[in-house]
Amino acid sequence: MQLLREIWYLMQKDFRLEWRQRAALNGMLLYVGSTVYVCYLSFVRGGQLPAPAWNALLWIILLFSATNAVAKSFLQESRGRLLYYYTLVRPEAVILAKIGYNALLLLLLGLLAFGAYSLVLGNPVQDMPRFLLVVVVGALGFASALTLISGIAAKAANSNTLMPVLGFPVVIPILLQLIKAAKNALDGLDASPQPVYMLLGMNLLVVAVSYLLYPFLWRT
Amino acid sequence: MKNAWWKVLTVVLLVYTVVMGLLGPVPRLAILNETIRNLYFHVPMWFGMTIIFTASLVNSIRYLLRPSYRLDVLAYESARTGVVMGLLGLATGSLWARYTWGTWWTPDPRLNGAAVAMLIYCAYLVLRSSIADEQQSARIGAVYNIFAFCAAIPLLFILPRLTDSLHPGAGGNPGFNYYDQAKFMRPVFYPAVFAWTLLGVWITEVTVRLALVKQKLYEKQLA
């Protein structure tokens, strides 16, 4: 119970910080918007994109915006503030709160990106509820896999380059399953929930490992 | 020289593997033809790589539980040897694929897994070199090593079994399991696995010893 309360306070704090210094949030929104628009301008002469390419491009946009959004989750914490947390809460609460906060943030970004993307590049999705479910699971997956990575990258010297270098290999299994599940929803044919279960399983695994490992990371 | 018997064994087994692997009898199969000899090189290299990466993981876990310089060096040097063996495995596999599948690379789950493993350990090496403080580098590197290994296991070992694959040993293709393999290939294959794994261990042992000696010299200079 204590853990849940700590997570709740930490998440509240993150949301409040985000809302008060809106520059970062606006930056992320603009990043997503301009990426989508650049893709639109690059593909506009080809007519409607074929469905697999449409799908792959959407997920690449989501992956890059997720990497960018999550990268700052530990960078913005100053050394003093981390020490302050150290006296107040347990490390498990910090990492779980960050994962939860990132999941909600990425969900917001993902839905906005998806909306903007289908506005300019068309929307060939056949099974809309299932596709939205995949976007939700995707936000969860990116958040859970990348949060610990951002904690690791924040400790290193060139953390901006390290974030994608460290994160992409870890995200690839999740990304492949996401693209598969999204393609199924896109075609509206294969209704088997297996890829979604697979994704949830992977998310659980990654969150569990983050939970176990973060206490070793934060004391450095 | 008392403990050198396994090094002698490595050399003997490697010479045996190369000679018998290139000259020994192999079944005549369509498409595969002589490329079946790759079984003695490519497959044992991947075995060796998997074992060495597992050693790296185990040492990282041991380092987190009880930090010491030796364990960190073991984890780091194992990862480096594993990368070398992985690159050899990729090269031999790619060459083999060129002559049997007609392409250097295909988007096959196993090949993806191999590529991801390489990316992870290269990222690990980059991470290690980009943190100046030695203890921080060791601890953060260990955390990443464990995290990445756990996150990539689904791709490496589970997903390939759920989908069809061109790779031998999956999707109805015969592999190197007990039933498919020609009996007279086994006397070369099993020693080959030992030989390549031992070679990896040997390389790691030498690099670890070098690192420890360097550290000792450094400490002597400070004193």
UniProtKB/TrEMBL annotation, chain B:
Pfam families: Cytochrom_C_asm (PF01578). InterPro entries: Cyt_c_assembly, Cyt_c_biogenesis_CcmC, Cyt_c_biogenesis_CcsA/CcmC. Keywords: Cytochrome c-type biogenesis, Membrane, Transmembrane, Transmembrane helix. The keyword Transmembrane helix applies. GO terms for molecular function: heme binding; heme transmembrane transporter activity. GO terms for cellular component: plasma membrane. GO terms for biological process: cytochrome complex assembly. It comes from the Bacteria. Its main location: membrane. It is a multi-pass membrane protein. The keyword Membrane applies. PANTHER family: CYTOCHROME B_B6 PROTEIN-RELATED, HEME EXPORTER PROTEIN C. Belongs to the CcmC/CycZ/HelC family. This is Heme exporter protein C. It comes from Hymenobacter gummosus.
